[in-house]
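Smr/MutS family protein
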Amino acid sequence: MAKRVLGDDEAALWRAFVHDVAPLRTGRRSALAPAKPACKAETSAPVSRPVGGKASAMMTVRLVEMPTVQRPRVRPAPHVGVRAPGLDDTQWRRLSRGQMRVDAKLDLHGYIVQEAFEEFHRFMQRSRVMGWRCVEIVTGLGSGVRGGSIRRELPHWLHRADIAPMVLGVVHSHQGNQGALRLLLRKKR
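Structure:
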């Protein structure tokens, strides 16, 4: 099958469409996608489109380059037992060995998942206000093969956009007990 060649108007429209698309891997640049212009400029490209049933009518498309929006960088919450960047050796060692004093403890035994989440969220907000440094959350092991539903949901709650920036480190309080987590929280600035 022969490769279709784009006309000038189609190539201009394609370049305008992909002007802000970044490649997944760096490599050679496509012949149709030249480098971005240094200045923001309006470009007009005549495009052949049927208007009102007539194929010969021309329509002008005005393309304006939009400024890029800087999104705030959200720090992801660390995974259980994985040392997060920015956590020094001493603090990590004390947290992972269980030598850090626990400021508060939340026991989620007996809650349904929605109630447990609401309690967890209130607890995390309170820990921010109180300036607690190390907290423990007890979910229990659960009765299922994969553990309880609260225990399975807790890592997802820790990765929420409002909770993740607060958490600096997460470990199991004891290697033999997978039903409780200790959280090292960031200092309030």
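The first strand starts at residue 42 and ends at 48.
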